[in-house]
From TrEMBL:
Residues 122-377 form the Endonuclease/exonuclease/phosphatase domain. It comes from Dysgonomonas hofstadii. One of its GO terms (biological process) is GPI anchor biosynthetic process. Keywords: Endonuclease, Exonuclease, Hydrolase, Membrane, Nuclease, Transmembrane, Transmembrane helix. This is Endonuclease/exonuclease/phosphatase family metal-dependent hydrolase. Pfam families: Exo_endo_phos. The chain crosses the membrane at residues 24-50, 56-81, 88-109.
Length: 387
């Protein structure tokens, strides 16, 4: 056979193979794009689908930022290769997610014009003040931060102090805490968990406005809880709800499995991590579902002029718990904040799970997450003013 014929045949085979590979790559890209679109659209349902019935949707809500990023990458890809029809479809899908996007990634610049009669609300999960003892407990930087914050109302979750009559653990005592918070004439501390003689653990509210009443909401939980306070603010009755919803109860071992997967990214570590997270997260989603339904039902019966809900929800903005709790309220961060607003920052988990919400009787301003690493949570604050 002539050499030219052999070369032509070889060239045809190579072109045919390259064409086949090209088609296969296009198919893979197109198929994975469709999967990414489906996941993104399904993740929106995490606001309304009950986790106890379809937990898978709740997981998709958790990874909404990731699926959104992947879809944006596909949009850029189609634009680069001038695939206008595909780009238009991808853009339409992303546009359908505008409300979740603006909730998770708000873009608002701080206002320099603030009302004269504004009030400042601060919520902070302090992780038991890191359970510091002795001199370290009394020099805790959290205290300096809070007292210098100029907040009118301070809402603590995982608040922990020693009992005044029993301080064998040498924690900061309730009496010492009262002295630190001396600018706040009104306080309410609601215990959570088993009663202990040595220390008090729970939810605390320190206020410059009168606290007329404090009621523990009857939700099912051992160490978490919710409290409704009735405050008088500028002559109006305000219901202030401080939540610490069910945690995911991830142990040090569970978090290590997650870290191992991020380092190795192999199948074995993924399977171990997925099994653990599915068990812990699935249970917690269902518990929080019941908790928010009880809290909202309890709150809807309150007679007031305005409502504020704040605290650690242990759930992201793309969750049933968040959406049900928010209902007809305004998320002050989504309304006035800038960026993702991560409030939990340890063990490679970076999520926004701490919130300040308010009724439409208020206008919120400059909601901010202060990036101070004194706890596993960052504090969140906002200004509110009656309309």
């Amino acid at each position: 056979m002539p050499a030219t014929n052999k070369k032509d045949k070889t060239g045809k085979i190579e072109r045919f193979t390259a064409k086949k590979i090209g088609k296969f790559i296009k198919y893979i890209v197109f198929a994975t794009n469709i999967i990414a679109i489906i996941f993104l659209l399904l993740s929106i349902l995490s606001w309304t689908v009950v986790p106890s019935k379809i937990t898978f949707i709740a997981y998709l809500g958790l990874i909404f930022p990731i699926t959104l990023f992947i879809n944006i990458c596909y949009l850029i890809l189609w634009l680069i290769f001038w695939r206008w029809k595909y780009a238009l479809v991808q853009l339409a899908v992303i546009a359908c997610c505008w409300q979740p996007i603006s909730t998770c990634f708000p873009i608002h610049f701080k206002s320099n014009k603030l009302p004269e009669k504004k009030i400042k609300i601060l919520t902070y999960n302090v992780r038991g003040f890191n359970w510091l003892t002795g001199d370290k407990a009394r020099e805790n930087p959290i205290f300096d931060y809070v007292t210098n914050s100029d907040a009118d109302i301070v809402c603590f979750q995982e608040f922990s102090v020693s009992s005044n009559n029993n301080n064998r653990r040498n924690l900061i005592s309730e009496k010492e805490m009262d002295n630190i918070m001396k600018d706040y004439p009104y306080k309410s501390i609601i215990r959570l968990g088993p009663m202990r003689k040595s220390h008090i653990y729970g939810i605390a509210c320190y206020s410059k406005f009168p606290i007329l009443e404090s009621t523990k909401v009857p939700i099912e939980s051992t160490y978490n809880g919710s409290v409704i306070h009735k405050l008088e603010i500028q002559g109006r009755k305000v219901s202030l709800v401080i939540n610490h919803l069910e945690s995911n109860s991830l142990t040090a071992r569970d978090k290590q499995l997650y870290k191992d997967f991020l380092k190795t990214r192999d199948r074995e570590s993924f399977d171990a991590m997925a099994a653990t997270l599915q068990d812990k997260l699935g249970t917690a989603y269902s518990v929080r579902e019941g908790q928010v339904n009880v809290i909202r039902g309890f709150l809807d019966k309150q007679e007031n002029d305005a409502t504020i809900i704040c605290g650690d929800f242990n759930d992201t903005p793309m969750s049933y718990a968040y959406h049900t709790m928010k209902k007809d309220l305004v998320d002050s961060y989504a309304n006035t904040g800038f960026g993702q607003g991560i409030t939990y920052h340890e063990n490679y988990f970076w999520v926004r799970i701490d919130y300040i919400m308010h009724s439409k009787a208020f206008q919120s301003y400059n909601c901010t997450v202060d990036k101070i690493k004194y706890s596993d949570h960052y504090p969140v604050w906002t200004y509110l003013a009656f309309k």
